[in-house]
Input
Amino acid sequence: MNPVIDTLLAHRSIRKFQDKALTEDQVTTVIDCARAASSSSFIQCTSIIRVIDKEKRRLLAEYAGNQAYVADAAEFFVWCLDFNRHLQIKPDAQLGFTEQTLIGAIDTALMAQNALAAAESMGLGGVYIGGIRNNPDKVSELLNLPEYVAPLFGLCLGYPAQDPEVKPRLPSSLLVHTDEYQPLDKDELAKYDEEVRHYYRTRTGGTKEMTWSEQIDGTLGKESRPFMKAFIESKGLSVK
Output
């Protein structure tokens, strides 16, 4: 083991933060580590909005489903897929392809993961906020995002004011396939379900008991932001 591996394996989502600011050097380091991430064909199709304005933070917290830590965290970044920069360089750029949207989403996620890992290595904590996609049109208007720029998720960063357990992830026996896709091992799934149930029971003092399978049943048994397709297309993305 080494410090990099230790940091990655110790990841927890932090939703309570100390009232303590990050230094500009810390912020610069986090962004520099994000910039160092891999980029498909070196297109570099991500923009990061660092939101400092308190009223904008308040509104973003509201748009994300009233998640107070969006407003309370020392730093909040909105990670955007961005092909507008390329359009400014090449006005006749061939844009709007679904492949470009995939590249933008993948590259942005890689950058954000680098950023959080770097922050955690400095003793900071954070949590990703997919809730900004609850109201992508309002977020886009608030941040003045032009055509070909779409907000994908947010990231809170700060000094942790809590110490949650590491949430158990799918075991490699269910995640890794050899040479071809393999059927789900129900026995391994049952073991993992009990591990997740124990995690929730311990974390909540017995007020929540749910297996991973039950959580998936609830999550995938309902609509999931069906308006996103129209919003993405309204930005000129994934129209062909």
Observations:
- The chain has a mean pLDDT of 96.
- The first helix runs from residue 3 to 9.
